[in-house]
Design goal:
single chain, elongated, mainly alpha
């Protein structure tokens, strides 16, 4: 909508948005100067491995373990790269796993 010229047709001086915040008491409203709450982005990655038997994990490329390490690393980006008084959050909220058919 922005690239289609929305703000040229309808100029604005401020934008207000609503966002669900479960920790706030019902019926309350919070206003902040500047940015507030998180943005949403999506990332997709694929991990390919080689299956095997649970009794012989050393003979497999364990995609579950690899994905778990990736998730742990992603979730620690903020804690190891953003100063304590700055605002940032990264959450891995879903994982889709399964066998891909050829």
């Amino acid at each position: 909508m922005i690239s289609d010229g929305l703000f040229e047709r309808f100029p604005v001086s401020a934008i207000y948005a609503m966002h669900n915040w479960p920790a706030m008491p019902p019926g309350t409203l919070r206003i902040n100067v500047g940015l507030m709450i998180a943005a949403v982005d999506h990332i997709t990655f694929e991990v390919f491995g080689e299956g095997g038997h649970g009794a012989h994990p050393y003979q497999t490329i364990d995609t579950v373990l690899v994905a778990a390490h990736i998730i742990t690393a992603v979730q620690s980006i903020v804690s190891r790269n953003v100063e304590a008084m700055d605002n940032a959050a990264i959450s891995v909220c879903a994982v889709l796993a399964g066998i891909l058919s050829p």
